[in-house]
């Protein structure tokens, strides 16, 4: 069987993994394996792909069983990691996608036709038809789930197209961390882009890279890649950001997760950078894939479901050495929407208010 979607034909796509049945399927091990196998895979996408692989191994017979098992596996996956925020955004999005897909009626012609919705699959076989085999529905769902995952993984290229119009010649762009989507955006902007009817020349800009010692390896990789593409890059420590901000035209960062109110959760230090940018009247942009949007709604830096172990008070030096909490290896902070100018997403450029509206629409 084949599906036609946006002019492309997709065959029955092989699912990664072994032949274990659903009862013995280890969703946590699968998630970590996928991240290890593909360094470019985001946490939400690894969660989505793990759930797709689970569905490929399961022997579900009904719609309700499918949804219930996906919910159970999602909860198991979220409980197995210390910081489940980004991962939960992926599982929530996929669950909503499943519900929408399983409820969508077939087209009157019976063809799969093209569908221009940003997240909708091709029309599905009707579930209220007693003569329709659920296995047909399940296989159709799996094919379209793989297509859904492929599209989400291609989001960085679409962000590069949408964001390049905001990167102008003879400007200095400040960034930080090891965001792959930001690295790709800046690298693509330094290249010409051929639209077929028009060739957009390379942007001539400079990059000021704030180096976080905790993300040294990722930062060095991005800096080396940009310099290899001819982009002038200067590195500065976080302690020099206030001094360096006077030379900056705009700030562009990535995000681990985009919250329901149009804020972001990202590596610790992002909030400080956003505050500094606001005080210096420099626009602060976020490059983030749509699959990172979710219902998380923190009210401050401490409104997470886990303790990061960053602040611990002791009056005894010896006790601190024995009892000190373990700090999360990748601590995070929350940057509120009022500090963000706009989002470079894979489908368009959005204000924080527009992001909040999209999250509500996605999760209704």
Automatic annotation (TrEMBL):
The keyword Cytoplasm applies. Its main location: cytoplasm. Residues 107-120 have a biased composition (Low complexity). Pfam families: IF-2B. Keywords: Cytoplasm, Initiation factor, Protein biosynthesis. Residues 105-131 are annotated as: Disordered. It is found in: Cytoplasm, Cytosol. It comes from the Eukaryota. The keyword Cytoplasm applies. Component of the translation initiation factor 2B (eIF2B) complex which is a heterodecamer of two sets of five different subunits: alpha, beta, gamma, delta and epsilon. Subunits alpha, beta and delta comprise a regulatory subcomplex and subunits epsilon and gamma comprise a catalytic subcomplex. Within the complex, the hexameric regulatory complex resides at the center, with the two heterodimeric catalytic subcomplexes bound on opposite sides. Belongs to the eIF-2B alpha/beta/delta subunits family. This is Translation initiation factor eIF2B subunit alpha. It comes from Apiospora phragmitis.
């Amino acid at each position: 069987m084949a599906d036609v979607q946006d002019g492309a034909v997709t065959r029955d796509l092989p699912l990664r993994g072994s032949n274990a049945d659903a009862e013995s399927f280890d969703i946590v091990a699968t998630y970590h394996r996928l991240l290890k196998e593909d360094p470019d895979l985001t946490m939400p996408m690894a969660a989505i792909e793990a759930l797709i692989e689970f569905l490929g191994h399961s022997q579900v017979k009904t719609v309700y069983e499918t949804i219930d098992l996906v919910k159970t596996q999602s909860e198991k996956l979220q409980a197995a990691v210390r910081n489940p925020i980004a991962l939960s955004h992926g599982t929530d999005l996929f669950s909503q996608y499943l519900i929408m897909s399983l409820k969508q009626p077939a087209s009157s012609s019976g063809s799969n036709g093209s569908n221009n919705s940003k997240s909708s699959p091709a029309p599905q076989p009707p579930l209220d038809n007693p003569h329709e085999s659920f296995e047909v529905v399940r296989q159709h769902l799996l094919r379209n789930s793989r297509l859904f995952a492929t599209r989400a993984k291609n989001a960085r290229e679409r962000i590069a197209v949408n964001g390049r119009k905001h990167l102008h010649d003879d400007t200095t762009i400040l960034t930080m961390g090891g965001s792959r989507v930001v690295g790709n955006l800046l690298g693509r902007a330094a290249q010409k882009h051929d639209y077929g009817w028009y060739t957009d020349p390379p942007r001539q800009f400079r990059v000021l890279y704030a180096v976080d010692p905790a993300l040294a390896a990722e930062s060095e990789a991005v800096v080396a890649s940009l310099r290899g593409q001819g982009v002038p890059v200067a590195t500065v420590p976080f302690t020099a950001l206030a001094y360096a901000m006077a030379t900056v035209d705009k700030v562009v960062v990535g995000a681990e997760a985009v919250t329901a109110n149009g804020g972001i959760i990202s590596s610790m230090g992002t909030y400080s950078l956003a505050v500094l940018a606001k005080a210096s009247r420099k626009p602060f942009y976020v490059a983030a894939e749509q699959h990172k949007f979710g219902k998380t709604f923190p009210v401050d830096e401490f409104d997470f479901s886990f303790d990061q172990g960053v602040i611990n008070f002791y009056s005894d030096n010896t006790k601190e050495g024995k009892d000190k909490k373990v700090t999360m290896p990748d601590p995070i902070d929350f940057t509120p929407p009022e500090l963000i100018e706009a989002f470079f997403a894979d489908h368009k450029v959005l204000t924080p208010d527009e992001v909040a509206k999209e999250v509500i629409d996605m999760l209704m």
